[in-house]
Design goal:
The protein has 233 residues and is mostly helical. The protein folds into 2 domains: 1-51, Orthogonal Bundle (Arc Repressor Mutant, subunit A); 55-213. Helices cover 75% and strands 0% of the residues.
């Protein structure tokens, strides 16, 4: 438990408690009673600051997405192709959800809840405008926003379906990228180059490293320590 003596700011106590429990237990299994007890706050204090668990999840998602984009740029450091970076970041998202069911749940919740999905639409559409504007010269930011509503729906569906021996991770990534690249009018030849390269990577190892860095970043950002069991997953 994070006590008032250890951390006077109730918002920080709530964030630390929630992020730790969302990743270790799962978003749905973490109850309001769990949060209030772990953060050492009253129900009224929690509701005055965040109102619901979704409010806390929004801050967690900010850290998760920023971390992924940063690492995608590093992995693609030999290319200046923005669609290439989009492809790598997307592949990392899909791969991580196959490695950790609680993170899968966090992502799916983000793509499902109206408040959270609206944050994603706005944040992602701004990036999409930068990445795909040259392929869609007549599109405005609103067009990318509307397209993101559709592609995020695809992402949610792909994340919701776990991989199996028929629908492998590489097939999932290849299918999603080809569909989303079509939406943004990326040429088939360029699509093929990007998808072939990405599916040739050891995405499980890369995503494991991304997840470890993510956990480390979350610990530093929200000032807590994951259990050893979670760190080893």
């Amino acid at each position: 438990m994070i006590t008032r003596k250890e951390e006077k700011d109730p918002k920080k106590r709530i964030l630390s408690a929630c992020v730790k429990m969302f990743i270790e237990r799962g978003f749905k299994k973490t109850t309001m009673l769990d949060i209030i007890k772990e953060a050492d706050v009253s129900a009224g204090t929690f509701q005055n600051i965040f109102k619901t668990k979704d409010g806390v999840l929004a801050e967690l998602l900010e850290s998760m997405f920023n971390n992924q984009f940063d690492l995608a740029y590093k992995i693609a450091n030999k290319t200046t192709s923005l669609p290439f970076i989009y492809g790598i970041e997307t592949a990392i998202q899909l791969s991580i959800t196959e490695l950790n069911e609680n993170i899968r749940e966090v992502y799916i919740e983000a793509y499902t809840q109206p408040y959270l999905s609206e944050i994603l639409y706005q944040k992602t559409s701004t990036e999409l405008f930068k990445i795909f504007k040259k392929y869609n010269p007549t599109w405005q930011e609103s067009d990318f926003y509307e397209a993101e509503i559709g592609t995020s729906g695809m992402m949610r569906s792909f994340m919701l379906k776990p991989c199996d021996k028929y629908f492998t991770l590489n097939k999932k990534i290849e299918r999603f990228l080809s569909m989303s690249f079509d939406v943004y009018h990326l040429g088939k030849e360029e699509q093929g180059i990007i998808i072939s390269y990405i599916t040739s990577l050891d995405l499980i190892s890369i995503s494991n490293n991304v997840m470890k860095k993510l956990f480390s970043t979350l610990e530093m950002t929200f000032d807590f320590k994951f259990s050893n069991e979670n760190e080893n997953n």
